[in-house]
Amino acid sequence: MASFLKKTMPFKTTIEGTVNGHYFKCTGKGEGNPFEGTQEMKIEVIEGGPLPFAFHILSTSCMYGSKTFIKYVSGIPDYFKQSFPEGFTWERTTTYEDGGFLTAHQDTSLDGDCLVYKVKILGNNFPADGPVMQNKAERWEPATEILYEVDGVLRGQSLMALKCPGGRHLTCHLHSTYRSKKPASALKMPGFHFGDHRIEIMEEVEKGKCYKQYEAAVARYCDAAPSKLGHH
């Protein structure tokens, strides 16, 4: 329940896996406000650095995967905060328009007053001359995820755009499944809603090895375009 979470929550993460056969391992620490939907972290590559690819493809598993830090408005039940103290997991596939493909599995748990994330990554088929492997990505544009219930779990889909040099964008489709460690009967499931996310790499502290990152996220209904039938 949300009562297990404080206005300021620390978190730590471990991310390991391979991208185009290159093994890496990262560790990170940060903190944020789960109820305002903001968080900051510093992540370091402790094995396999400097990364021979754009860190951006991992950053979505750091923060876009840190689902506890989302500001829920309009009375939407917060699936993620309800899942504590047990926590939750998620699986995600990300398909890039240039053929790159990334799968991720994350486990979120609560250790005392600290959130703990463990992430496994497998990335394949990124073109050698593309912006990911050439490390020419600039930033993620803001994105919106649609979220809905399927058989007692929460599903998410989104289209994200990675800004590249020359005003170009590399887009990707994300399909996520979020699973509470509590039974569905113990949760109040949310209806169809949206999650707005802004991920920003604030600083590359050491090239290919250390990054500072920020995210803001809000979950909402489609209030800007009201329904005449009374739907959210």
UniProtKB/TrEMBL annotation:
<keyword id="KW-0599">Photoprotein</keyword>
<dbReference type="GO" id="GO:0008218">
    <property type="term" value="P:bioluminescence"/>
</dbReference>
<protein>
    <submittedName>
        <fullName>Nonfluorescent red protein asCP562</fullName>
    </submittedName>
</protein>
<dbReference type="InterPro" id="IPR009017">
    <property type="entry name" value="GFP"/>
</dbReference>
<comment type="similarity">
    <text>Belongs to the GFP family.</text>
</comment>
<keyword id="KW-0455">Luminescence</keyword>
<keyword id="KW-0157">Chromophore</keyword>
<dbReference type="Pfam" id="PF01353">
    <property type="entry name" value="GFP"/>
</dbReference>
<dbReference type="InterPro" id="IPR011584">
    <property type="entry name" value="GFP-related"/>
</dbReference>
